[in-house]
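Protein Record: Sequence and Backbone Structure Tokens
======================================================

Structure line: whole-number tokens from a learned vocabulary of local backbone shapes, matched to residues.

Purpose: to set a sequence beside its fold so the mapping can be learned.

___
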Amino acid sequence: MKGGGYYSQSTRGAKDVIDNASSMLIDAVAALPAPQNGRPINIADYGAADGGTSKKSIRDTVAALRGRFTNQQILVTYTDLASNDFSTLFKSMQGLDGDADNTYYNEFDGVFVHACGIGFHRQLIPDGSLSLGFSATAMHYISEKPCEIPDHVHMVGASGAALQAYADRAAKDWENILLARANELVSGGRLVFMNFGKDEQGRYLGGTDGIDMFDTFDSLWKELAAEGRITQDEYVNASFSQFYRTKEEFSAPLLDTASPVHAAGLRLISAHTGVVKCPYRAAFEAANGAMSAREFAVSYIPTLRSWSETVFATALDRGRPADERAAIVDDFFQRYEDRVATNPDGHAMDYVHCYLAIEKV
């Protein structure tokens, strides 16, 4: 991930998703059992990135915990991959970036903050010590690619054996994620997840109406291959390590009384899907002609690039010089910007999530 807060600065929509559903966290706090024997209350943000998108909601959660448990110590653990921008996270959390809003570490006494640079597919917190686990816009990432997708860059455009391989991998990963959280949670602990997925109308991130974002990615990547700018192998290697589950796929291991997840004590409290409109598209439409198509494109493309760039960069042959690889990626996103600027109609990255509340009994 790029440093300097690039992710949060470029993903306003992800923050909107969390802020709009922050009441789920407050509800979870209200339902938590009182800690035993003076133990601290542990909360965790899985897949936190640079912490900017969840900053307000984590602050509000800490405030709600402090309201219920006046003198209890609180431990907040941020988890993500080792390559994550933890430096920005800790600067932001303390207000060292010049933004003092929602700096709960300074606002409340008895709050401790840790980080874990290991992915959430594994258990990260000791058995029976987590009170509240949270994750937003993260668990669509699978632990590994089961194969490359031969004729598209994403599973939403895959079919046949490739699609089945991704579905199988995603199902196993989801079971492992839930089992890891079940081990971590105290009895009565809660999970609040807001994951990318497919809704009941088959809509997904950037694929709600208008022009499909992943089809555009694929079209432009194919264009580079057709021109000889990248090889066919480099085209095929740009398969996103992602799977968008339906509400039914999310719920299945929690509802199946014969599943290991159910046996581990996890129970589904609620599940629903929702769409949050692309804020960059909304700003363009609200401008009523005062924003040009190019200005919209310039504002819009960084939010796509913030999370997808690494897929295309790592697909390129490592034998290419680094500056050549960087130039290809820059050209790719410039082509996307130019396409939007030429005709902005239908371009938007609406967020489609499945919202889950889970309890350990």
Remarks:
- Confidence is low (pLDDT under 50) at residues 1-10.
- The beta strands are 41-46, 74-79, 111-116, 130-136, 185-198, 245-246, 266-276, 351-360.
- The first strand starts at residue 41 and ends at 46.
- The radius of gyration is 21 Å.
